[in-house]
Specification:
The complex is a heterotrimer of chains A (312), B (285) and C (605). Chain A is an alpha/beta fold and 312 residues long. Chain A is built from eleven helices and twelve strands. Chain A has two domains: 138 residues, D-Maltodextrin-Binding Protein, domain 2; 142 residues, no CATH class. The chains are: A alpha/beta (312), B alpha/beta (285), C mainly alpha (605).
């Protein structure tokens, strides 16, 4: 009896501590969320979000800020996440949060904002009116010849069949040569017999392209079921930068790299863009705001704007 | 399991002849003649723990098939001396033994097999230390160590040892029960039975009854009297009545010196040394 | 030499060889990170590195670059790590200590068993789950009282870390309290003390050294934790501004930037690992001091836990109430976190998810991950357990007690258990992955995890071996048994329950570990692994990958559920085996304790 009393008493106390935390209401402050520096999503976002003078967040983090106490990054106190999942969870759970994730990851738990009055969609990405976008890139080594199997797989990745998979996966298909940085999507016919040499294909790079690559490999295996095994693929994804590094270090010609941000013009790698992806600016569904400008984004991430009321 | 392969002497142990045993285990020390049968002879033994001189120049002859008691106050070195006879002191870091120790015709600090020595010189400790296994497994632990694997032979050893320790009737129905479920006194007698199972020539007892009640103590004393027909018993005790009751010879130690050694009656009735007299009359210690 | 002696020598050689392999492996990691970080340290300058408050690396910096374009100061991270660890120690230490007191002295056996088992379950939950729990449940709660409008930061990190160290703190403290001889308690009661007074004034002070040990091990765990922290700390490399400021810990820094780091940056990250090691070493040193201090205090000097209570306060009565409150608080927390996982995950566990093979492009399915997890457990246990046990045997049974050399080995093993797991991952990536054909494989992951497990397995086996009373060994030697027979027939069987629980804990760690496996075994959902040389994601990695793009959150929570069930099964299995062994060595624990106590007494007289 005494013990039961004791238990009830302590339960009340313990709950009391908990309830004390649930007190006063929300606040107007903006909770700035971003990705870690190696993220392709961040790279795409930082290169586009710019103030009136044309300074981008990318410039801000790499040049203007090095002597500030904060990291080469965003405003002091900003939060950094190591994956789309954690960032999206954060935004979904936090009323005042703002962040950016791949459009394909947006669901009803977060709200994608229009940027400069343009909502992100396949059409607005293709015609370029939605500004924060990035290509999905396939890369391979420039100096080492690809193995016959890797070459065949690359041909498949470049093909119209692959573009069908892109569409199925909800990506923005790219078939024209200029945007792809190659001669346009080609026709792929599966070889009648297994190409010579080792069959292993190494896939490294962006986690954002995980689903797409999964589907592409699935399709490729289906087309070449007579000689390809799923276990011939060695896929390990830790971000766009690791994809670039793996391609650069390739000595056997079997590495296909993936990056979810544009390759530089003077890139040391062969590449083509397989699809476009919009980077959606997301806020909590409870947030009333629906449109934002690039300059406002710049101000938010650099700390010039700290309250949602300053935007309305 | 690592010892399981020595089949040559597997079944010979229960009623083993000394020669056979020696042949089996100490094959390479050409030990046909080695025999632990006989008394213990110690000449000019010195023992140091690091800088501490624990035993000083001790010489003693312990006769066969007798009970010899070591008495003396705490810290006098009697337990330490006892442990020299089966070289348990080897396990103590920084312990150095000098002098000549002979058991039977074996120089036990010479080039011999220590395990064989310990098989022949069993030991019972102050605190009962049965292993955490069944009564049966406790007793056959030693024989199995020396290669006996046949169930029938082991059964025979268990019965013989338990009878020797006067526990067979108590325990024959509980052989597969854990030894740790026994009472303290039973545990200690089980340890004696366990020591007997390998057919030792000598049993060393290090204050075997100090943790026991008077009834259990009595049983163990009776047991000692029985045992001396088969083995030589050396017992360390704090209890002078016990020494007087059961021992044939008594040695009195003080601060690492052997003060007096003789027939028990003589030591207790007519001590030659004044310190002995003071101790046994209870003036110190 | 006869055969017995030959066997003795061969076994000793074998144990020594195992010890050498272990020590080499473990030292290799140490040397690896130190050597790799020296150029960076000398380039950056030790002072600038440790006391610089700007972390702004440039991935194009190389050792030949002059001057460096980036700034490499980790002071903010050092402060962040210290703050969050101290916070975790305060929260987890208080909760853990009082919960352990409650379990050991204020509750019935049934509550104790169930509650204890659930707390152990906490140890097997992957830290990613703690992270999501923190984000989804605690942070929104804290957001209400946060001046910044967001609950992330120091407070939530401390709380979550505090919860994460609970299993360690509770288990060790409870063991310590239970090892206090009953006579002490009875003596206090006989002098008229109440139950509470006897517990808090007599039993608790007597268990002081194990309580402190528990706290210090908890600190080690908190300072090395990564995956949960990077989800709730905010990760901005600045000194936390209050309880809700965004900050970054040293481990988070390593994980966040390891993937893409340039030459100098990588060196700086590894140097961060070295600084972490130094911290762990300092903690262990404190540990040693406390232990030896505890021994000195035996003489009856006043023992206090650093808390001096005014006389008019009835400390014991308050202690009892606090114990109840803490225990209930922990219970509520346990129900919350387990309930959270179950509610989010259970509805999404389907037959297809569990039992279908995964194919590229298909719906997520966990069968390959389950198989990979089991294969990884097999590999790592087959490697780490025999090696670890043999090493522990060598250290405990064959070396001289108090030998300086062994002491050094022991403390370096302790230090190595504090290396963040990501560093093991990096080491594995540069060694095992390369050895096994250049790509991630279960074997490479298994070797990496094995090295990671070794310190824990060695130390906990050693503790179990130490708990075997010397009287058993003496008894065996006195019967003429050699060392090898004594070890295999007497010492190991007696130590088995302890060793077994160490193995089960190790399996729990294999199951819940993420970071090192992503670099060595596979980081994405994959089809059925192609044997031990194939790659594959474990359940914990699959969980991370599924949650990674926010597309399969339901499946991720379902995976967490599956993982929890797996850990539960493992714990029950351990309990079952423990019971079976307990029956076999009936009453052994009591005997062990008794004999230990007695031998202590006898050594005093």
């Amino acid at each position: 009896m005494k013990k039961i009393l004791m238990a009830i008493l302590s339960l009340a106390l313990a709950c009391g501590i908990g309830v004390a935390a649930v007190g006063c209401g929300g606040s107007d402050a903006i909770v700035v969320c971003g990705r870690e520096a190696s993220s392709g999503t961040r790279e795409a976002f930082d290169k586009v979000a710019a103030n009136a003078a044309g300074d981008t967040l990318d410039d801000y983090s790499s040049e203007q800020n090095p002597d500030e106490a904060a990291e080469a990054g965003y405003v002091s106190g900003a939060q950094y996440f190591s994956s789309t999942g954690t960032l999206a969870t954060k935004v979904a759970q936090t009323e005042g949060a703002i962040g950016y994730i791949s459009l394909s990851s947006v669901d009803e738990s977060v709200k994608a904002l229009s940027v400069e009055g343009v909502a992100p969609s396949e059409a607005t990405v293709l015609d370029g009116t939605y500004k924060i976008q990035r290509p999905f890139v396939f890369m391979w080594n420039k100096t080492v010849a690809l193995t016959p199997v890797a070459q065949d797989f690359l041909n498949f990745l470049k093909s119209k069949t692959a573009q069908d998979v892109v569409k199925e996966e909800g990506g923005v298909s790219l078939t024209e040569g200029e945007a792809r940085n190659d001669e346009g999507a080609i026709d792929y016919t599966a070889p009648t017999a297994a190409p010579a040499g080792d069959k292993k294909i190494v896939v490294r790079g962006s986690t954002s392209m995980n689903d797409l690559m999964d589907a592409l490999i699935g399709k490729y295996c289906e087309l070449n079921s007579s000689w390809v095994k799923e276990s011939d693929f060695d896929m390990s994804l830790q971000g766009s930068s690791t994809g670039r590094e793996a391609v650069d270090k390739d000595t056997t010609g079997n590495v296909i790299g993936m990056a979810s941000s544009a390759e530089a013009e003077d890139t040391p790698r062969n590449y083509f863009n397989v699809a476009l992806d919009a980077v959606a600016v997301v806020v909590n569904p409870a947030n009333e705001i629906s449109n934002i400008t690039l300059a406002q984004l710049y101000d938010i991430y650099t700390g010039a704007i700290t309250k949602w009321s300053e935007i309305k | 399991m690592l010892f399981g392969k020595r089949k040559n002497k597997a079944s010979s142990l229960p009623k083993t002849e000394p020669q056979e045993t020696a042949e089996g285990v100490v094959a390479e020390t050409a030990a046909e003649e080695l025999s632990y049968d006989g008394g213990i002879t110690v000449k000019e033994a010195n023992l140091h723990y690091g800088d501490f001189h624990a035993l000083k120049n001790i010489s003693i002859e312990i006769p066969e098939h007798r009970i010899t008691a070591f008495i003396g106050p705490s810290g006098c070195g009697k337990s330490t001396f006892l442990k020299c006879f089966n070289r348990m002191n080897d396990l103590v870091a920084g312990c150095k033994v000098e002098g000549e120790f002979t058991i039977g015709n074996v120089n036990i600090y010479g080039n011999i097999d220590v395990n064989e020595l310990r098989k022949n010189v069993g030991m019972v400790f102050q605190k009962p230390n049965p292993f955490p296994m069944s009564v049966y497994d406790n007793i056959v632990y030693g024989p199995r160590t020396f290669g006996i694997k046949k169930r029938a032979a082991l059964d025979e050893i268990v019965e013989r040892s338990l009878k020797q320790a006067a526990m067979w009737d108590e325990l024959k129905d509980r052989l597969n029960k854990s030894a740790l479920g026994l009472s303290g006194g039973q545990q200690q007698r089980l340890c004696i039975a366990r020591a007997l199972a390998v057919d030792p020539k000598i049993i060393l007892m290090d204050e075997p009854t100090s943790a026991l009640d008077p009834i259990s103590t009595g049983k163990i004393e009776d047991l000692c009297m029985e045992l001396k027909n088969d083995v030589t018993v050396v017992i360390v005790t704090h209890n002078m009545q016990q020494a007087a009751r059961i021992s044939d010879k008594t040695a009195f130690f003080l601060l690492g010196d052997l003060i007096e050694y003789g027939e028990t009656d003589q030591i207790f009735d007519r001590p030659k040394d004044k310190k002995t007299e003071e101790y046994i009359t209870g003036r110190f210690g | 030499m006869n055969r017995v002696k030959a066997k003795e020598y061969a076994s000793k050689a074998l144990f020594a060889a195992a010890a050498i392999v272990c020590i080499v492996a473990v030292v290799a990691i140490f040397v690896f990170i130190v050597i790799r970080s020296i150029p960076a340290l000398s380039k950056i300058g030790f002072f600038n590195f440790v006391f610089g408050d700007v972390w702004n690396p440039d991935r194009y910096d190389e050792y030949v670059t002059d001057p460096l374009a980036g700034r490499y100061g980790i002071l903010t991270m050092i402060v962040g790590s210290i703050f969050s660890t101290v916070g975790a120690l305060i929260i987890g230490g208080i909760l853990g200590f009082f919960t352990a007191v409650f379990l050991a002295r204020f509750c019935g056996p049934r509550v104790k068993r169930v509650f204890g088992a659930v707390i152990n379950l906490l140890a097997g939950i992957p830290s990613v789950i703690y992270g999501f729990f923190g984000m989804a449940v605690i942070i929104p709660l804290f957001a209400n009282i946060s001046p910044t409008g967001d609950g992330a930061g120091l407070l939530v990190t401390s709380l979550v870390l505090g919860i994460m160290i609970l299993p360690t703190v509770v288990a060790l403290t409870k063991n310590g309290l239970e090892a206090v001889p009953q006579e002490l308690y009875e003596g206090a009661r006989a002098l008229g003390a109440t139950h509470e007074q006897a517990v808090f004034k007599t039993v608790v002070p007597a268990a002081k050294s194990s309580i402190v040990a528990a706290l210090i091990l908890g600190v080690g765990r908190a300072i090395g934790e990564t995956m949960a922290v990077i989800m709730i700390a905010g990760n901005s490399p600045e000194i936390p501004g209050g309880l809700f400021g965004s900050f970054r810990t040293m481990t988070a820094n390593i994980v966040l930037e390891m993937g893409y780091a340039g030459e100098v940056q990588m060196g700086a990250l590894l140097a961060t690992g070295v600084i972490l090691l130094v911290f762990i070493a300092i903690i262990n040193l404190l540990f040693g001091l406390v232990i030896s201090g505890g021994k000195k205090n035996k003489g009856g000097k006043k023992l206090s836990l650093g808390v001096t209570m005014p006389k008019w306060l009835n400390f014991s009565a308050i202690g009892k109430v606090v114990s109840w409150v803490c225990a209930v608080f922990v219970a509520v927390f346990l129900v919350l976190i387990i309930g959270y996982i179950v509610i989010r995950g259970l509805p999404h566990i389907t037959g297809d998810l569990l039992f279908k093979n995964y194919h590229y492009g298909g719906e997520p399915a966990l069968l390959p991950a389950i198989v990979s997890t089991l294969l990884l457990i097999v590999v790592s246990i087959v490697i780490a357990v025999p090696l670890g046990i043999a090493t522990a045997i060598f250290l405990n049974e064959y070396t001289k007690k108090g030998s300086k050399f062994v002491r050094i080995i022991r403390s370096s093993i302790d230090v190595l258990s504090g290396i963040p797991s990501i560093v093991y991952g990096l080491f594995g990536m540069l060694t095992f992955v390369v050895w096994f054909g250049g790509s991630s494989s279960i074997l490479a992951g298994g070797f990496t995890i094995s090295i990671m497990l070794l310190p824990t397995v060695i130390r906990s086996t050693e503790e179990s071996l130490k708990a075997v009373p010397d009287s058993f060994r003496e008894g065996s030697f006195a019967l003429g048994a050699g060392k090898v027979r004594t070890i295999f027939k007497i010492v190991l069987p007696s130590a088995l329950p302890g060793i077994l629980s160490a193995v089960i804990l190790a399996i729990g760690r294999v199951v819940s570990e993420t970071a090192p496996l992503m670099y060595t075994m596979g980081s994405v959902l994959q089809p059925m692994p192609d044997g031990f040389l194939g790659s594959g994601a474990t359940l914990a990695v699959a969980l991370y990958a599924l949650a990674g793009e926010y597309k399969y959150m339901d499946e991720a929570y379902a995976t967490a559920c599956v993982l929890m069930v797996l850990v539960l099964i493992l714990n029950f299995f351990a309990g079952f085996i423990g019971k079976r062994l307990g029956k076999k060595f009936q009453g052994e624990n009591n005997a062990v304790r008794k004999t230990k106590k007695q031998s202590k007494q006898s050594s005093e007289d």
